[in-house]
Write a structure and sequence with these properties.
Layout lengths: L3 E6 L2 E6 L4 H7 L23 E4 L6 E2 L10 E3 L3 H15 L16 H8 L23 E3 L9 H8 L6 E3 L6 E3 L16 H5 L5 E3 L12 E6 L8 E7 L2 E7 L12 H5 L14 E4 L2 E4 L2 H19 L6
Amino acid sequence: MSNMIKLTIDGKEIQAPEGSNLIDAAETAGIHIPNLCYLKGMPGIGACRLCLVKIEGMKAPMIACNTKVKEGIVVNTKSEKIQETRKFVIDLILSMHPLDCMTCTKAGVCNLQQYAYDFDLKESTFTRKKFGFSIDEGNPFIKRDPDYCILCGRCVRVCKHQGTNVLDFMGRGVGAKVITATDKPLQESSCTFCGSCVDACPVNALLEADRWRKGREWEYEKTRSVCLLCGNGCDISVSTKEGRVAKVDSGGADGSVEKYICAYGRFGFDCIEAETRVTSPMKKVGNELKERTGEDAINIVAKKLKKAGASAGFISTA
């Protein structure tokens, strides 16, 4: 069991496991430190610079995602200087990001949109930059739009964590972008279409290819379930609208590296509405399948198991 470290964050005395970073420690106290690049379960890289905090005794602000808790430290996450720095960062990002939040599919769950609201930024005060990168949508699973990318690196890191290593950075400065090997479309790369990058992306740069006009995030009814498309039984979150499945996500925590399911589990839900899907117990009578009640099906199976057990032993029914 990890030793517990005592510290103070925004006037609250809290305890956090030894070795944890300040973002995770603050979350245990109900304090959210803004961030765009951090993935829970992976080391912080401080790429977005939003998680800067003030620690008493330190001359310069520290990166919360990469700073471990220490006994007795006093942390301020909302000082005037820190808030000004965060607003500057968001302002700069908005200068290179489309401002179509009214029709954006990620509206309501976009981290950048939320932070722009928090810091009262309707648009950037800097000169707007437009890139016009090509949209990668030649596959039926994932749409990749580099114009929305904020270069947080989440997709690159989670892709490496899954062992696929499809995505990486190309270029430097404002002209940098995330690409596949030799900048080929996803379907021409070694991508397995697990969609972990989609879950990791905090904006609209990576999205399920068929999500357009399937409803807004706040219209979905979300249900925790278990994927039944193989025997692994992965946790999933099913988003439905008007009784129809709009998307399937991993059941892992948002912003966590543990948020993973395979391509089959994420994109194979069309079978739910297939006309040939069996929706009730069926028994073969002659050359036809006849519908039976659930109770009848259980009784029939129970009788056959008892018969098999009597003739061949209980091990044969395992």
